[in-house]
Write a structure and sequence with these properties.
- The chain has about 140 residues and is an alpha+beta fold.
- The chain contains four helices and six strands, in the order βαααβββββα.
- The protein has helices at about 10-20, 30-35, 45-60, 130-135; strands at about 5-10, 65-75, 85-95, 100-110, 115, 115-125.
- It starts with a strand and ends with a helix.
């Protein structure tokens, strides 16, 4: 899987907060984030994981190919006010099912050289037509 760099801006965080209803101030205010011991505004965990999973989905042929995810966070994605944070996403196929139906992709996700995810596995379908496989 080809590694990708994904920018995350404060505007992305504002739009995600509106869409998701997650208006936790640590995602929107440096002061609120710093009060809790964070270095500044941090990206929403669900946004971060969705972006990383999206890289795998694109590689696998579409979002409908993602059949399971397991992600443990290791650290926050700090988003500066004046420049995007760069989420670095790389993945390696670690296991293919004996019948060739699925593959487990281990993600390595960092931002500014720091690990964002601890253990992160995305399972994708390798079948061309999942509906045929499910009915057969």
């Amino acid at each position: 899987m080809r590694a990708r760099s994904l920018p995350i801006t404060r505007e992305d965080l504002r739009r995600y907060a509106e869409a998701s209803g997650d208006h936790n101030p640590i995602h929107l205010s440096d002061e609120a984030a710093q009060t809790l011991g964070l270095p500044g505004v941090v990206a929403h965990g669900m946004l971060t994981s969705a972006l990383a999973i999206g890289v795998v989905a694109e590689w696998a042929g579409g979002a409908d190919r993602v059949v399971a995810t397991s992600i443990r966070f290791a650290g926050p994605v700090v988003v500066p006010a004046d420049t995007p944070a760069l989420l670095e996403v790389a993945g390696t196929v670690k296991k293919v099912a004996d019948d060739g139906s699925t593959a487990e992709v281990a993600l390595a996700v960092t931002c500014g050289g720091a690990k964002v995810f601890g253990k992160a596995i995305v399972t994708v379908s390798l079948l061309r037509d999942r509906n045929v496989a499910a009915s057969g």
